[in-house]
Every structure is written in structure tokens, then in C-alpha cells.
């Protein structure tokens, strides 16, 4: 937001929120009607689909930029991105909406805007000349004026961008315009604007050696980035020629450009290995829609309309052969990265796919080890008991492996124990009896908390696998316990018989479906991150902002403490030791959500 907002700082449709595009509905409906029943005028019916083309074009740039900056290769600015900036920039598509609205109004008012030809050479040439001359010149001086204190504080500090329409308007009035001139020019503006703000340099040096004059005709990402960091230089729109003419080119322009090209991909200290969950989760990743990624993952009805892209993404996951860098963070002296196994949750339950996933995880661990990674933590189903056991066998085969593999079980157990309200003397355990469940049972029984189950065969299995004192394990009616510990592979319909006010605490990777009214549901094992953990601007799946899963935190703590051991297979670290280290490094426990579930 501008530091001193001036007139027209906010878009007029801001109160409409996500429904702002509804203002175009009359024109969209009329253009469809005209296309089918009246006249197929491309000047009219192309406005709506081209709006989506522009949005897709911008989204591709956003995704590529986030991917490149996470890897670190050729990155220009190291300043961290936080949730505040993401929220401030969620209206990036307002300019696209404004252009579409302007085009519809122009078409309605001016007859010369109708029935444009697809191509006119003189119109295309005129558009290019008008941009290089009047538009670039006027923008340069307007931009310099906006950096005057009065205007800057009221408008430009929010970094608004103008919709440059002068060449389009001029070619229309001299009747030399065309579809190619109008929409080609808009595409040029979008391309150059997105390129200038992508925060990674990719212009090859050879290009400027072959075409020396190019540096006057096209800026590079590093050139425009210096305007954002130095403020009083590099004012040009897209063509730096006027900066060179009037002496406002920053002195470090060439050095910054060359240093960015030489910058290599960063090698992290800690890697967290995750994967895709639901089919539409690809849109809610950090590399997807920023506005969705910056909030806890929930089902959105409009994502169903994206099924062609969802289908394509699923096909890509079937053929993709390696993990990709999803996110990069910094904490104390550690460089942290999150890597994504390109597989959906459903694929982890396929025996054929599970073999391929095991191999993919093996290759990822080896790649991380060769890159100098100290610790790799396994998230979601990447640390499923079968996969974790496979990793343990794999590690035994490679005694020279320097990287430490952590499944985070000990911190998960510690987090669940801390989530149980003080004074609780009985809990109901539901779910698969994996190593996390068994560790929780042992810890609770040592604290004189009775662990109950519903069925006699479950009780017998626990008595056989857990050595505890008599009375620590028992059968219980389903509606008696007030605290439920729920894991994997349990019948979620059982919660419908829970008594009102019951608390459900998951120790599983995925949250249970909230089916019972009047009950409380805790988050999956997680903690609040310290404020010194930076560049955190996306939510981890369904968790709130600045909250991180215990599995992910475990790898960070492992590296900070310098522990020289793996935690996978049947191994569980000292629970108290891991919890104490987490608190000491600034991680905080999550409070029990006090909002009762209102939906059954």
C-alpha cells in the first residue's frame, strides 16, 4: 500500500473481492450472443479469451520466477519474501481486468474499433515506432516525476504500473490498427513487465556481443531490479536508451548483470522432501497460485474448472523422473529447501507406483548427498512406515553416506504429547499401530495416562507389542473418552459416536475429516516457527501461516544440533531431548483450536 494513499490508489472494484470479474459479465454475454447469432467480429469476441491468455502468461512467469529464485541460480536480489508482500500483490490481475473493461468500452463507443483486420503491416510498424518514441520518452519523464517525494509517497511506493495504450489508440484513430497490432502490443507489454520483475537474470552475454545496440532497446531483469534497489536510476519503461541519453543508468548495471549470470545454484544444508496431495494441490503449491499458496490448503470449487491443467499435471507426474525445488528458507546459519516428489497421494497407495517412488526417493537422497546436504527429512507419505523401512535398508547398503535421513518420529511424538491437555488421565487411540503410535503409548503409560482402544483384538495386540504396567491399557466405550488420538487407517465414521466436546488430536500426516459437530479438532503435529526463520511466504499444506509440520522441523533441529545419526526405520530418538532442542531454538507449540466444529 502507498505510504500516504492518494486519489485512485485503490481499484474501484476492490470491494467485490474475488468476484470482481463479474463486472465484465454483460459484455461477455453480449459478445457470445453476437458471435453465435449476429456477427463474428474478432475485435469483440477475442477480448474475453485473450484476458485468460494474459492471466496464463503472467502465471507462467510467476511460477518460473519462484522456481528459479528457490534454486538460487542467477538470482538477482536476495531479499526475502514474506506473507505481507504476497497479500499486497494479490491484485496483480487488476490491470488485466482494467484492459478488458477498457477494450469493451472502446468497442462500444468508437465505431473504428470494430471489424479490425487480423494484420496490417503499416499499423504494426506504426505501433512499434510510437512505443519507441513518444511512449518510452513520456514514461521515462513521468517515472522520474513519480520519484518526487510527494508523488512517490502517495502513489509509486505501492509500485503501480500504467496501462500504456497510446500506440493502440493512435493506430485506431488513423485507421491503421489490426488484431495483431493491438494484442501483439499488449503481449509485448506483459512479457517485458513480467521479465523485468522475475528476479533472475537469463540474458546471455553473447546476445549483446552479437547485437551491441540491444542494450539500448531492451532492458534486462537485473537492469530493472536496480531501479527497485537504488530508486534513483534506471527509470526506463522497457528501452534503456533514455537512461543512457540523460545519464541515469546506475553505475553498477554491468557489474550486477555479470555477477548474476555467474551465480550458481545454491546447495542447502537441510532438505525437506514432500509430495503432492490432492489433484488440485498443484495449484496451491508455492509454484502455483500465490494467493492460494499463502493460505491453508482447502478445497475450492473453481479449481474444478481447471481440470484440463489438472489432467496435464497428473500426466507429467507419471513421466517426471526427479524431485524439484519447491521452496527456499533461511534460519540462523542454515539454508533450507523443500523438494517436491512429483507424485500425488493416490499414487503412494499403488504397489507398482510405490516401487518407483522408493527408487525416486533413493535417487533424491543420493543427489542431496552429492550436493552437500547435511540432513534430509521425509514429509507426508515419503516417511510412511514401508518407505521409511526401505530407506533404512538403503542407508545400510551405503555406509559412506554423509547425509542424515530423518523421518521426524520423535518430534511428532513429543508434539502430540504436548497437545494433550494437562490433567488428562485417559485417551482413546484409533488408527494403525505404527512406531509413532507405539512410542506415544509408551510415553503416556509412563506418565500414568491410561490408553484405551475399542476392540479386544486391538488390546491383545498392544499388550503383546508394548511392555507397560497392568491397567495402563484397557477397553473403553466409544463415547466415554474425551481425548481421541487418531492416526492412519482408522474408521473415521467412529467419530460420529464421540461425546460432545471431545478433542481429536491427530498423529497422522493428514488431518481427519471433521464429521462430528460440537467437537474440537487439533492440527496435525506442527509448531509455530521463530520469526528469525525468513523467506516463509507459503503455507505447508493445511497448516496456518508460519506453522511448520513436526516432520519438517525435525530435520532442521537435527542439523542445528549436529546429531550424527539417522532416524528412520524402527529408530526413534529421545523424545524429551528433541522437544527441548526445538523449544530452545525458538519453535513454539500450537494452542488447541477453541472453535467447535459446526458441520457434520
Automatic annotation (TrEMBL):
Its main location: membrane. GO terms for molecular function: iron ion binding; oxidoreductase activity. PANTHER family: STEROL DESATURASE. It is found in: Membrane. The keyword Transmembrane helix applies. GO terms for cellular component: membrane. It comes from the Eukaryota. It holds the Pfam family FA_hydroxylase. The keyword Membrane applies. Residues 427-589 form the Very-long-chain aldehyde decarbonylase CER1-like C-terminal domain. This is Fatty acid hydroxylase superfamily protein. One of its GO terms (biological process) is lipid biosynthetic process. The chain crosses the membrane at residues 21-38, 44-64, 96-118, 124-142, 301-325. Coiled coil: none annotated. Keywords: Membrane, Transmembrane, Transmembrane helix. Residues 172-248 form the Fatty acid hydroxylase domain. It is a multi-pass membrane protein. Belongs to the sterol desaturase family.
